[in-house]
Specification:
Layout lengths: L2 H5 L6 H16 L14 H10 L6 H12 L3 H12 L1 H5 L2 H6 L2 E4 L2 E4 L1 H9 L10 H18 L2
Antiparallel strand pairs: 1-2
C-alpha cells in the first residue's frame, strides 16, 4: 500500500456514521459534568492535570468527540468518523444542498436528508482533509435516487 492511500480518509459505513452523528449530537446537547458537580470539586492542581491529560469534558465539542471515541475505539475508524463529523456544520450550511431541499433550516432546528448523511459517510476527502465538494454533491444525488427508488 502506498503512502498516498494511507494518508486518505477512509469511507465509513453509513449506518455507523448515523450512529456516530447521533452520539455526537446527544453529547453536545447534554449538560456539562461541571454544571452538575457536587461540592467536592477538583482542586486547581487536579484541573490542570486533567486538562493536560485529555480534552476537557466541559467543552461541548470535546465532550461530543470523546463520546464518539468511546463508542468507536478503532483508531482508523474513529479518525474517519471524527473528520466527517467536523465537516458536518460545513455540510449543513452548503447552499447547493439547501437549494436542493436536502438541508432545511427552520425555527425548530435543521432537517438533513438521509442522502446527505449517507453521502458524507463515503465522500472522498483531499489529502489536506478538505471535503471534495463536487464528488460529495454527486454522491448526494446518487444516494437520493437510491433512497427514492427503494421507498414504497
Amino acid at each position: 500500500m502506498s503512502s498516498n492511500s494511507e494518508e486518505r480518509v477512509r469511507p465509513v459505513d453509513p449506518e455507523r456514521f448515523h450512529l456516530a452523528l447521533g452520539l455526537y449530537q446527544a453529547a453536545l446537547a447534554t449538560e456539562s459534568p461541571q454544571a452538575n458537580a457536587s461540592e467536592s470539586s477538583p482542586t486547581p492542581v487536579e484541573k490542570v492535570g486533567a486538562a493536560t491529560a485529555a480534552p476537557s469534558a466541559d467543552i461541548p465539542a470535546n465532550r461530543a468527540i470523546l463520546a464518539v471515541k468511546k463508542e468507536f475505539p478503532d483508531t482508523g475508524e474513529f479518525q474517519s468518523l471524527s473528520l466527517r463529523l467536523q465537516r458536518f456544520s460545513e455540510v449543513i450550511g452548503d447552499k447547493k444542498l439547501i437549494k436542493w431541499g436536502m438541508v432545511h433550516h427552520s425555527e425548530g432546528g435543521i432537517e438533513v436528508h438521509d442522502a446527505v448523511i449517507n453521502a458524507l459517510a463515503t465522500a472522498p476527502f483531499r489529502k489536506s482533509g478538505v471535503l471534495d465538494k463536487p464528488a460529495f454533491h454527486m454522491l448526494v444525488k446518487a444516494e437520493y435516487a437510491k433512497l427514492e427508488a427503494s421507498s414504497p
